[in-house]
Design goal:
Strand content: 35-45%
Helix content: 25-40%
Oligomer: single chain
Shape: elongated
Radius of gyration: 15 Å
CATH topology: PH-domain like
Number of helices: 3
Number of strands: 9
Distance between the termini: 10 Å
Order of helices and strands: EEHEEHEEEEEH
Number of domains: 1
Strand order of the largest sheet: 6-4-3-1-9-8-7
CATH class: Mainly Beta
């Protein structure tokens, strides 16, 4: 099996993301409506995928504009499958794991999803 190491700038869909007081009041109602419709807010940061699992950490700007953002870590043993979903400009990579589905959007999403799915399939063959 090949070594797996993917590191990408991305936006991750975080279900419990809450805007901070730095976000102007006039936009909060719009942000709340978008969050309800999409199931969370898109938060900028970096995703890293290794044989140990998938990790996402928000960038400094997004940490400032959201309350209590925590890093995401999904152990590779908990990941069941990955696929690409349509997205304007950047594609979306969906990763199904034991506790739900984690989504992030990045350039090269088709390749990221394919490499991750191939790795998962190889792991399951053992």
């Amino acid at each position: 099996m090949t070594d797996l190491h993917i590191r990408k700038l991305c936006n991750a869909l975080i279900p419990n993301a809450v805007p901070s007081k730095l976000v102007p009041d006039v936009t909060v109602s719009t942000v709340d409506r978008i969050s309800r419709k999409m199931g969370g807010l898109w938060v900028g940061g970096r995703v890293e995928i290794t044989p140990e699992g998938l990790s996402f950490a928000a960038n400094r700007l997004n940490k400032a504009f959201h309350i209590g953002l925590q890093p995401v870590h999904i152990p590779m043993a908990a990941i069941r499958k990955a696929w690409r979903e349509f997205g304007w400009v950047t594609g979306i990579v969906a990763v199904e794991h034991d506790e739900g589905t984690f989504r992030f959007r990045c350039y090269g999403a088709r390749k990221v999803a394919a490499v991750l799915e191939k790795y998962i399939a190889g792991r399951q063959e053992r």
